Amino acid sequence: MKQVCISQHPLVHHKLTLLRRATTEPKKFRELVRELSQFLLYEATLDLPLQEHSVETPLAPYHGHQIAERIGLVPILRAGLGMVDPILDLIPTAHVWHLGLYRDHATLKPVTYYNKLPPQVDVDLCLVLDPMLATGGSAVAAVTVLKEWGASRIKFLGLIAAPEGVRALHETHPDVPIHLAALDDHLNDRGYIIPGLGDAGDRLFGTG
Asked: Among the four 37, 65, 71, 80, which has the fewest Cβ within 10 Å?
């Protein structure tokens, strides 16, 4: 799949191993999610267009560049929240909107309970943030909501995915690039990624 980009950076592999470890406490887990999110953002934004922008250095004028697109972050609640601040550190002008989706454990289907999108699209690129792409239901639903809202350029950023989730998102929205730190083996009968890391939301917020 041309639209699926899996990071090959050595530091990503190293930090992802620490993230998966069952004994990694919430504080360290959050730090690792922060660092991995910034690596993913770097790779996902290599194609951002630039426009010329001049500034004055202490010695002379400098003819440089600035990002030419307005960027919106769309974290899928609640685990996606852990990816927002590290991205805002690098792109502080980004807008942040929240989509609340949870997976019904009986049906494994997404249920929308919160949508805080503004009335009109005011960005050029939407980054959907969710550490785990398991069944793909929440990601598919989030992208569908954004397209119905009017978003034209969307990318998905996630730390770990299952083939089933990648397939579901790619087949439903083949125009949406998927940026991942790792693609794992499969889903178990409860819809968890194997080997994965457990429930990312619980591990982020210490509620497991």
From this structure: 65
